[in-house]
Amino acid sequence: MEIKTNILEKVNQWLTPTFDQETKDKVKDLMTSSPAELEDAFYKNLEFGTGGMRGIMGVGTNRINKYTLGKNTQGLSQYLKQSFPNEEIKVAIAYDCRHNSDTLAKVVADVFSANGIKVFLFEELRPTPELSFAVKYLNCHAGIVLTASHNPPEYNGYKVYWQDGGQLVPPQDQEIINLIDSLNYEDIKFEANESLIEYIGAEVDEAFAVSAIENASFDIPTEAKENLKIVFTSLHGTSIKSIPNVLAKAGYTNVNIVAEQAEPNGDFPTVKSPNPEEPEALTMALKLAEETNADIVIGTDPDSDRLGVAVRDNNGKMVLLNGNQTMVIMTAFLLEQWKRNNKLTGKEFIGSTIVSTPMMFNLADAYGVECKVGLTGFKWIAKMIKDFPELKFIGGGEESFGFMVGDAVRDKDAVASTLLVCEIAAIAKAAGSSLYKELENLYVDFGYFKEHLISITKKGIEGANEIKQIMTNLRENPVSELNGERVVFIEDYQSSKALNMDTKEYEDLKLPKSNVLIYYLADGSKICARPSGTEPKIKFYMSVNMPIENVEEIKDADAYLSDKIDNIIKDLNL
């Protein structure tokens, strides 16, 4: 295979004295042993997506390595200096259990310090939400966490947080990217100023735990907490550093931890994927739940921002709730608590995303609060909190198993969310109910909503082109009918236009541009297509709903809506 000229130019740059010998040797090896892999490693620069920058570790501009992250950090250092002249600039850095996360975190710390920036570096791996918390707690100007969330073991990543504890959003993200792109690799300052690097741990851990309990714990009898039987797994990730401690401090003594998955390990040896969205990931936890007759199973992803929850249904069988279900359960509970404590004034809001369940609007209407909706990713919910200081944020989430309780952490937070869902389960059990029954009651009150996600993986250059073509086809040949229902509205966030199919009139969309397409049907169904911002996937989100009068109608409603989803899938040729 002949190496293309434009790629060879990039490759040759990585063979100059700017790069260390080990890197140069690996590049040379790829040139002879795997030209196709070389092309994939250099055909583009690694980009920032919905959850920061993620990629496969290795040499090249399209890989996670000391040079790509070093260049990011050099650009960010210069941007911080421009943004905060005459201030002592401070940043916090955390990292997860992945291979090289600790060494890459030290590289990032070195570059910041070499640029005269004070660094607070966690002494060991820590959850992503703790980094978000630490940025504000330590009065930092920015924060970095080295993580690839639930991606496969060969991945790592780099998330950037700002002063408010939220991830970067426009226009700052593009300004920083432009600055990074203007740099050469020889501009990176790798020589650390060790006097500017301070290691942190226990003090921030304690403050983080106290904050989680303040936000997610309620006035529940001790006996109710002790009676709740919990199984918890960290899936080899960082939550083992926080969740058992927070649960214990909050009064939960009946916690069984999956021992085989409690040891942090970047290979994630006991699961195919360390993603609590995947039922297989919770297999060992569900087995332990049967052995211990547990009421609830909770599993978190490697950086502890997502949580999967399984509970017993009305027949005593453990079932995994989806992200939309856990989101509405937690949101409804928070709204009810705020109402009971006379804290609702009409100046509050809950947060969600354009691909999540529309049931959130029904909850907001019932409690007289606003439901603000943003693009996919919690950085948009964090931005809502910053943009509307006159409103109080109660909580919010997205369908991909993330939730945020209050505003102490400005990212999805599996630590506080785990405590919150245990509180709900403990109260329900003490009242002779269950988390599952509470969800059924919500469906009676607010409508039965059923969501389904189809995720199609397309790897490499060809895969990226295929995904691009799928989105192009959907735009150029818009669907007019699905499951016999008319498409009444199409939102295209790439063009920032919404088309009313009846009047053929366009409206402007107010959210930032994004490669997302949403179809709304006459019966209230919603279908969304978007390429993932963090993985080589295209995702199709489907939401259908119908009113029900009582819980006895749920079985028939579920079958009816399942058929509707199946027909939509067939019509879309998925």
UniProtKB/TrEMBL annotation:
The keyword Magnesium applies. It comes from the Bacteria. InterPro entries: A-D-PHexomutase_a/b/a-I (IPR005844), A-D-PHexomutase_a/b/a-I/II/III (IPR016055), A-D-PHexomutase_a/b/a-II (IPR005845), A-D-PHexomutase_a/b/a-III (IPR005846), A-D-PHexomutase_C_sf (IPR036900), A-D-PHexomutase_CS (IPR016066), Alpha-D-phosphohexomutase_SF (IPR005841). Residues 47-183, 220-316, 322-440 form the Alpha-D-phosphohexomutase alpha/beta/alpha domain. Its cofactor is Mg(2+). Keywords: Isomerase, Magnesium, Metal-binding, Phosphoprotein. Transmembrane segments: none annotated. The keyword Iron-sulfur does not apply. GO terms for molecular function: magnesium ion binding; phosphopentomutase activity. GO terms for biological process: carbohydrate metabolic process; purine ribonucleoside salvage. Belongs to the phosphohexose mutase family. This is Phospho-sugar mutase.
